[in-house]
Amino acid sequence: MRDITIVRLIPDSDHVDTVASWTYAEWGHLHPGATGESWREAFRRECGKGGVPSVFVAMQGNRPVGTAALMAEDMNSRRELSPWLASVFVLPEWRGWGIASALIRRVEEEAADSGFRQFYLYTPDQQGLYRRLGWQDHEELNYRGEAVTIMLRQLEA
Ligand SMILES: CC(C)(COP(=O)(O)OP(=O)(O)OC[C@H]1O[C@@H](n2cnc3c(N)ncnc32)[C@H](O)[C@@H]1OP(=O)(O)O)[C@@H](O)C(=O)NCCC(=O)NCCS
Question: Which residue positions does the secretion signal occupy (predicted)?
Fold first, then answer.
């Protein structure tokens, strides 16, 4: 996979601003009232030391090229479900090399090691990617004006 390593993102890392800017550009519009600064600080708080919350980055040398997170909440209307795989993003020029798959596997491992037996994600259009990785369709619904699928991953003990 082109010398990619998956590492935990710590809050004082130089890469926090870069990675937060990707996720703000991709999903910021779904959060009215969020600014680049408020987003970055909320993102920094998700960079926990282990378990929930955690953020991981795919590094090519010293350069971050993708990210994925384990979060307590990701959907206001389904607060009973927790935790969530969230913020899966790979830079466009690095797509199609299995980097998202490796990030997702790392988040699954983190959730399993934290004692969870299942966790969730929602996606408008990437169901195929997650199904290939063993995720199951859980519920179809409209969320923030979009048709999305909540998916469920069973984890090994
Ligand atoms: C969705 C996204 C994260 C996928 O990232 P990625 O690193 O390209 O994902 P992967 O490489 O693991 O898998 C994607 C595809 O590459 C294929 N692939 C995996 N490893 C490969 C390899 N070594 N060589 C070629 N192709 C490969 C996979 O089969 C998959 O095929 P598909 O195009 O039919 O889906 C990326 O496109 C992205 O950031 N999109 C914008 C944000 C987004 O939609 N995030 C998901 C929110 S739910």
Answer: none
| Radius of gyration of the chain from its Cα atoms, rounded to whole angstroms | 15
Domains of the chain: 4-115 (3.40.630.30)
pTM: 0.95
Tokens, residue 24: 């703000």
**123-141: per-residue pLDDT in tens?**
999 999 999 999 999 999 9
Closest C-alpha to ligand 1, atom 30:
96
Q: How far is the CA of 33 from the centre of ligand 1 (A)?
A: 30
26 with 39: CB under 8 angstroms? no
Q: Give the DSSP H/E element, type plus range, for residue 150.
A: strand 146-154
Question: Which is nearest to 136 in space by CA: 113, 119, 124?
Answer: 119
Distance CA 33, CA 84 (A): 23
